[in-house]
Design a protein that fits this description.
The chain is 44% helix and 0% strand. It is flat and about 70 Å long. The N and C termini lie far apart (71 Å).
């Protein structure tokens, strides 16, 4: 199990160049996971997404997207 003292010992080993990044990581972890800053989809939202995908999958099968033939490029002089 990781204890605070073990974590502090490891922090003391971090090079000074990385202290700002480490500080930002620690600050980010202080925010509770249920905060509005983080998006954690609820089970109903995931189910709604699945329903959306199932209802729209192959909805254009009768009218597929196609690409017209490409026009010919103009022939130009060589660059010397």
């Amino acid at each position: 199990m990781i204890t605070r003292s073990l974590l502090k010992e490891e922090i003391d080993k971090v090079k000074d160049d990385y202290l700002e990044i480490l500080y930002k990581l620690i600050r980010a972890l202080e925010t509770p996971l249920n905060s509005e800053k983080f998006f954690i989809p609820k089970e109903t939202e995931i189910l709604n997404w699945n329903v959306f995908i199932e209802s729209t999958y192959s909805c254009m099968a009768d009218d597929p997207i196609y690409r017209d033939e490409q026009d010919q490029y103009e022939i130009r002089e060589d660059i010397k």
